[in-house]
Structures are given as C-alpha cells and as structure tokens.
Design goal:
single chain, about 350 residues, alpha/beta, TIM Barrel, 2 domains, eight-stranded parallel beta barrel, 13 strands, about 20% strand, globular, Nitronate monooxygenase domain-containing protein
C-alpha cells in the first residue's frame, strides 16, 4: 500500500507521513521505525552533545540494517538558535551528522537559517548525486517562505500552524488558513514540496491537507505516544488522558528549564495540568489530588519567583509528577488516546489516509 506525492518521490518513500524532530523525544529508534513503516522519521539533535547524536544515529542505522556507506534513511533536525550560540560546536555537530549520511536535515528557529543551509550544501559529500542531503526548513510566514524558495533554495518547506505542539510562532495562523495562503505564494514561485504541520493526528486530517495541496503531513504529538519516543510512560499516559483544552501556548516551561534564547515571538505549546494527580493503575487513569494544586503554567502566570518555579519543576520532574513536568502537546491531543508502536501507528495512518482520500474522490 502506498500513496505517492512529489515529496514521496523526492525521498523514495511509500507514504507522505513524517515524524517531526522533537527535542528530548525523537531519537534514532522512533525515526527508524517510522521510516520502516514507509514514512520518514526525523531524530532531533536538540540540545544534545555530539556523542549523544552519534549514538542515536547508530541506533537508527542498526534498526534499518543500513551499511556504513549506505544512505541513512532518516533525517536530523536542528534548532538553529542553539547552533548560533556556539558556532564551533555547531559545525562539529553538523559535520558529525553528515558523516553518517542522513537522507535529510531540518532547520528551524534561528536568525540565520540560510547560513546553515549553505553549510550543509558545502559539506555534503554526496552533493551532485541523487543521494544529496535534502534540506528541510520550517516556516510560518510568507517572508520566510519566499526566502526559502528564492534565496536558500531548499528542497522541502514545512509550513507550521499555530496548533503544533512544542515550539512555534506564537501569532502564527491556524494551519487550515495558513497553508492555503502560503501554498499559493509557493506555487507562484514554482516552489518545492510543501509539508503541513500543526495539530494533525488522524488519517482524515492528513487526507484533507493533501487535497489542499500539501505533499505530506508532519505529526509530532501522535508519535510522542509511541514507546520508541524518549517520553516516559507517565508522560504518554498523561497525553492519552488529556483533552485538547489542556493544550496551551506558554513560555512557562522554558523559564522553568532555563531554555531561553528562542527567536522573538516563539513560544511553546504543552499540557496545562491543573491539580496535581496520581495514576490509578487499577482503573488506568489519572485522578486529581484536590489537596495539592501544582502546575508550572499556573505558577508562571501568577508571577511566582523564578527560582521557586525552577525548583518545583526539578522536583516534579524527578518525582514524575505529570502536573509539574514538561509534556509538549499539540491541539490535536484530544484525538490521541492510544499508545502504540511507531511502525504500527504509521501504517494505520496510511491506511486511514487512503480510505479518506477514496471517500473524497468517490
């Protein structure tokens, strides 16, 4: 079973489903299993060291049973503001990734994405062959879209709507408004394949975006639910129990973790858990503890002292308290209730996607 678009043809894959590079969540196992299912998986360099990145790339290579000289059929995502903090470390990180011959790289959230695109082009040992490294960039504005097409000349553009879990442009438009607006601009400039990202969780949503002109869809929260992600069982169960009203945009977790330095206008979308809770294993659900009101977002919005906020966050994370720890979640989290392996989830999404497209055509 396959579904072909310009994006799947570019990468030689069966289905236009992409697992996003999520810092702290996407490693080699998650990326490789999505690729094994016919989609395309990204692991995230995030805040990692060179050693950690190399370890995850080797995990992906082992799962995909790829030889040392073979193209590694996963991508690596980079937070450009992290690269820009320490250019020497950044060069080392990028060169390490390129040595492993990934099929793609993904750049987002920086002041000078074009510099990193140029770095990859200049250091790609496979440049000029069909196996050259495909460069993805993530954008949310027409200005960046035009730069990506005309100046950076990237291979794939990811259009991210406001619904995305994790970080994004706080004032971005909703995806179903943003994508048609930007896809029209891209079509006028003969742009590359466009992927849609933000609040996507079902095959019906993927099918709808394909009918709007997307060449593929990027999913994040859905894959956080997979055992191959770095999320803990507690975090996955919290996602399964959450409804979409709990997905909120905030800088609370970045202040609590001291991960500040994002470009202006960028914040994160995660779970806002009110009362502290405990997991009732017999009934397989979280129950609120009315005696203890602990929530990082609420404390941040009340103006709690930063040192206290960080201490509570550290203690809550250590205690695996889902009301205090970080759980990124897109607005589609209410549509996500099952914990299943990434490969199974990808195959299911492809099946449902094709069924929904057939319904639209018939």
């Amino acid at each position: 079973m396959s579904l072909q678009t310009s994006f799947t043809s570019l990468l030689g894959i069966k289905t236009p489903i992409v697992a996003a590079p999520m810092a702290g969540a996407s490693g080699g196992a998650l990326a490789a299993e999505v690729t094994n299912a016919g989609g395309f998986g990204f692991l995230s360099a995030g805040y990692d060291s060179v050693d950690a990145l190399e370890r995850e790339l080797k995990v992906a290579r082992d799962i995909l049973q790829a030889g040392e000289q073979d193209t590694l059929r996963v991508g690596v995502g980079f937070l450009c503001w992290q690269l820009e903090k320490d250019p020497a470390k950044a060069d080392n990180l990028l060169l390490t990734a390129l040595e492993h011959k990934p099929q793609a790289v993904w750049f987002s959230f920086g002041e000078n994405l074009g510099h990193w695109v140029d770095f990859v082009r200049k250091n790609d040992s496979r440049a000029g062959t069909r196996d050259f490294v495909k460069v993805f960039v993530q954008i949310s504005t027409a200005q960046d879209l035009i730069l990506a097409i005309n100046t950076w000349k990237v291979d794939v553009i990811v259009i991210q709507g406001n619904e995305s879990g994790g970080h994004g442009l706080s004032n971005s438009l909703p995806l179903l408004t943003l994508f048609p607006l930007l896809s029209r601009v891209a079509a006028e400039r003969n742009g590359p394949p466009l992927l849609a990202a933000g609040g996507i969780a079902t095959g019906a949503q993927v099918a709808s975006l394909l009918t709007l002109g997307a060449s593929g869809a990027v999913l994040g929260t859905r894959f956080l639910m997979s055992p191959e992600s770095f999320y803990s069982d507690v975090q996955r169960r919290a996602l399964a129990a959450a409804d979409s009203s709990q997905s909120v945009r905030t800088m609370a977790f970045d202040h609590a973790r001291n991960t500040l330095g994002w470009p202006e206008g960028v914040d994160g979308r995660g779970l806002r858990n009110g009362m502290a809770s405990f997991y009732d294993s017999y009934h397989m659900r979280f129950l609120a503890n009315p005696l203890c009101y602990l929530a990082t977002v609420d404390d941040f919005e009340r103006g709690e002292d930063l040192a206290s906020l960080r201490e509570k966050f550290v203690q809550g994370t250590r205690a695996a308290d889902p009301s205090r720890m970080l759980i990124w979640a897109g607005s589609s989290v209410g549509l996500t209730s099952k914990i299943m392996p990434a490969k199974v989830r990808s195959e299911y999404l492809l099946h449902m996607n094709i069924l929904n497209l057939e319904c639209r055509i018939s």
